[in-house]
Every structure is written in structure tokens, then in C-alpha cells.
């Protein structure tokens, strides 16, 4: 690729404003040089002078540093260096009218980069997305409004054939319509008990927008997201990939991945990355019970058959089912020993028991345990108390949001 970029006619005046980068560039380059990044600093200076190949070389150098060891050992300055290089690369693509490539570079900066230049990255995404939509609208026809998940009832007899043994035979999770804050606090939060809350999401724009293929492609199609490929994270063939959202949608719609290797956008902070989707949801008032604070807001989006294996989480959790249906099974934290958690630190919150195929010889205690379960319908929320073990299977294509929050005691001790 040549060092200079010639913009197409009519877009040569396109420039990305990056005020933080402009103000912090010199100081950041000094910090990078102090860590031995002299070659990076030279390439970054050439990039500012108009050399696109130097910008890409600087990005490659920073990328190598990000992968030089365990993620926690990577110096923060190299994460900021990667953000800087992504902004430089994006500027060249944007000036050339290459909006998809510009968004790809910016997303990589958001996903892998540091915090120093995050506002520039976010603002640049908004800027590029706006120009990209203008261009796409010029040649677009009428939207056909294709739905991702048709309104077809689930056949319970067919569902039971794919669910774990004894599903829907024990205690069902109680369902409460429009549950009051007082009722939630008294009957479930303080008693450490799951509950399904119905009729609580009708006001979310996501309830209609996220089931519309054209809408999702319009607001997120060109964005780069991390996805999981494989049965689940406990399997040896599990891996992660970076793909555009439109490619991900195409995979799960056309089932280009096999049932043994589904593609799943799982536990990703999608709403920090794509503000338009964040605007389509609301933080449930229930998440403020206990006086704590929201810890994370994650997306779970994938085809029917995706499974999150039996595990527990450290925080209060509301799982909001926006599109599609899921089966959820829950075991109280008191049954930890009977569920055989892994001994390795990284997996100590995950059970060795595969509920889809329990090894009776190796895990005899797990066979007859009592549990709670439910089918979580579109428009419902499930409250999962901290440390409750849960297994989740998508019964249809599914788009969910999880809200993790701590109570006041958790916040003060963390």
C-alpha cells in the first residue's frame, strides 16, 4: 500500500476531529518511547505527516505488544498506543470515503485499546457512521422489515427433546407481572430467590427494533464485534473471532455454521461500543435495589441451540429477554459441592457437570438434585441472585441483555 492517500472526488474534505489525540499526542509518544517504542514513535510521526503505510506499521507494532504476554501484563501505554494508531488508520480510510474500513479500525481501537483516547474513538464512530448512512440512503430502496424471529409458538413436546433430563419437572421459577420495587425487595432480593418479571419491557424501543433485520444492519452492520465459535467455552474446539455485525447476522440467519459450532455474541459490552443500541434499552429500576451500582451491561445474541454451561456469577443479575426464547435452569449456591466446580482458578465458577449429557459415574451427586427452571419468554426478565448456578439454552434465535449490579455491601468491600 502506498504511503499517500488520494481521496475520491467529493469526499476529499472529510476529516475526523480528534481533539484528545491532538492534545495528548506528544506526551503519549514520549511515554511510548520511554518504554522502548522508538520505532513506533517514528512511524506515528510519519503517519501524522500523511504516510498511511506508516500508520498501519505503527498499528502492527502496537498489536504485537498487546500480544507479548498475558493481557494483564500488557503496559497501559501500549493499549493507548494501539488506540492512537487505529485513529490514524481510520483517518486515512475516512478521507478516502472508505467508511467500512474506517469503522473497522475504530472498533478495534475500542475493543483492544486503552482509555486515554476512548472519547475520540467513540466520537469518530458517530461521525463516520453518520456519513456512512448518508451514502447508503442515497442508493437504498424500501425496507422489507424482515423479522429475525417470527411469532411462532414453541412446541413444548419438541423442546423437551433437546433440553436436559428432568427439565420442567421440578419447581418452576415464579412469574410476577409488573412486580413493584417493594415486592421485589421483600419477596426475592432479600430472600435470595429467583423470579421472572413480566410486563416490564414494553416501553423499550429494542422490543420492536431488535427483531428487525434492516434496523440492525443499519445501525450496526459495519461494526466489528468479537464472537464465540463452538459449543461453549468449556470445549476444546471453542474459539473467538472478530467479524462485522452484518457477517455475524448472515451466519446466524443462514445457519452457515453447524449446530456443533454455532456462532454466539456472548457477554460482550456491545452497548459501550454501539450507542444506538444502548439507546434502545433502559436499566431496570430493580438494578438499584440494595443501594449498589451497575457493574456491567452485556449482550447475548445467537441462534437457537447456543448454550451457556452451568456456572455462577458474583453479582446480582437481571437477564432481559428482548427477542426470542430461552430455557434457564437454576441451582442454589448451597449445592456447590454437588455440582463439582472446576478446581482451576479461571474456571472455578463453572461446573464440570454437562447437563446435556451427565456422566452418572463421575458426577453421581448431580443426578437427583432439585432445581428451579423456566422458559424465559420474549419481553420477560429473570432475576438471578449472586452465586446461583445457572444453565441457559436458546430455544430460538435470541437477543438478551444482562445487567449485573452489586449491593451497597459489595460495593464498599470491593
Textual characterization of the structure:
This protein has two domains: 19-138, no CATH class; 156-413, Jelly Rolls (Sandwich). It is 36% helix and 19% strand. The chain is built from 14 helices and 14 strands. Helix 1 packs antiparallel against helix 2 (38-48) and helix 4 (76-95) packs antiparallel against helix 5 (99-112). The longest helix has 21 residues, at 118-138. Keywords: Dioxygenase, Iron, Metal-binding, Nucleus, Oxidoreductase. It is found in: Nucleus. Belongs to the JARID1 histone demethylase family. Pfam families: ARM_KDM8_N (PF24472), Cupin_8 (PF13621).
How large a portion of the residues is in β-strands, by DSSP E?
A: 15-25%
User: Cα-atom Rg, whole angstroms?
Assistant: 24 Å
CATH-wise, what's the superfamily of the largest domain?
Cupin
Poorly predicted regions are 1-12, 139-143
Give the spatial strand order of the biggest sheet.
2-3-12-9-14-7-6-4-5
Total individual domains: 2
| Order of H and E elements | HHHHHHHEEHEHHEEHEHHEEEEEEEEH
What average pLDDT do the residues reach? 90
Write the CATH architecture name of the largest domain. Sandwich
Helical residue percent band: 25-40%
Number of strands: 14
Shape: globular
CATH class of the largest domain: Mainly Beta
User: What is the overall number of helices?
Assistant: 14
C-alpha termini separation: 49 Å
Structural class comes to alpha+beta
Q: Biggest β-sheet, characterized?
A: 9 strands, mixed
What do we call the CATH topology of the largest domain?
Answer: Jelly Rolls
Family: Belongs to the JARID1 histone demethylase family.
Cofactor: Fe(2+)
Subcellular location: Nucleus
Main location: nucleus
Amino acid at each position: 500500500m502506498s504511503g499517500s492517500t488520494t481521496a475520491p472526488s467529493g469526499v476529499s474534505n472529510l476529516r475526523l476531529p480528534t481533539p484528545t489525540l491532538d492534545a495528548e499526542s506528544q506526551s503519549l509518544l514520549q511515554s511510548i518511547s520511554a518504554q522502548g517504542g522508538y520505532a513506533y514513535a517514528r512511524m506515528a510521526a510519519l503517519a501524522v505527516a500523511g504516510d498511511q503505510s506508516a500508520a498501519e506499521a505503527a498499528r502492527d507494532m502496537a498489536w504485537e505488544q498487546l500480544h507479548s504476554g498475558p493481557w494483564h501484563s500488557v503496559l497501559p501505554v501500549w493499549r493507548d498506543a494501539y488506540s492512537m494508531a487505529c485513529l490514524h488508520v481510520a483517518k486515512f480510510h475516512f478521507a478516502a470515503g472508505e467508511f467500512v474500513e474506517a469503522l473497522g479500525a475504530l472498533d478495534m481501537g475500542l475493543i483492544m485499546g486503552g482509555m486515554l483516547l476512548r472519547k475520540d474513538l467513540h466520537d469518530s464512530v458517530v461521525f463516520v457512521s453518520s456519513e456512512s448512512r448518508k451514502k447508503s440512503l442515497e442508493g437504498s430502496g424500501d425496507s422489507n422489515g424482515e423479522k429475525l424471529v417470527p411469532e411462532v409458538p414453541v412446541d413444548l413436546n419438541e423442546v423437551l427433546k433437546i433440553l436436559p433430563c428432568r427439565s420442567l419437572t421440578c419447581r418452576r421459577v415464579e412469574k410476577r407481572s409488573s412486580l413493584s420495587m417493594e415486592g421485589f425487595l421483600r419477596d426475592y432480593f432479600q430472600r435470595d430467590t429467583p423470579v421472572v418479571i413480566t410486563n416490564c419491557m414494553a416501553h423499550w424501543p429494542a422490543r420492536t427494533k431488535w427483531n428487525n433485520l434492516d434496523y440492525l444492519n443499519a445501525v450496526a452492520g459495519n461494526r466489528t464485534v468479537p464472537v464465540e465459535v463452538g459449543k461453549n467455552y468449556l470445549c476444546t474446539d471453542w474459539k473467538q473471532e472478530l467479524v462485522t455485525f452484518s457477517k455475524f447476522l448472515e451466519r446466524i440467519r443462514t445457519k452457515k455454521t453447524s449446530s456443533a459450532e454455532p456462532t454466539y455474541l456472548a457477554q460482550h459490552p456491545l452497548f459501550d461500543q454501539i450507542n444506538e443500541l444502548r439507546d434502545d434499552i433502559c436499566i431496570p429500576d430493580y438494578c438499584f435495589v440494595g443501594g449498589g451500582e451497575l457493574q456491567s451491561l452485556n449482550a447475548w445474541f445467537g441462534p437457537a441451540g447456543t448454550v451457556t454451561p452451568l456456572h455462577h456469577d458474583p453479582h446480582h443479575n437481571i437477564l432481559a429477554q428482548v427477542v426470542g426464547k430461552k430455557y434457564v435452569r437454576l441451582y442454589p449456591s448451597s449445592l456447590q459441592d454437588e455440582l463439582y466446580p472446576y478446581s482451576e482458578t479461571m474456571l472455578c465458577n463453572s461446573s464440570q457437570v454437562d447437563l446435556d449429557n451427565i456422566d452418572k459415574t463421575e458426577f453421581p451427586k448431580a443426578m437427583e438434585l432439585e432445581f428451579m427452571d423456566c422458559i424465559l419468554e420474549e419481553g420477560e426478565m429473570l432475576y438471578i441472585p449472586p452465586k446461583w448456578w445457572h444453565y441457559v439454552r436458546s430455544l430460538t434465535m435470541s437477543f438478551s441483555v444482562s445487567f449485573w449490579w452489586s449491593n451497597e455491601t459489595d460495593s464498599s468491600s470491593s
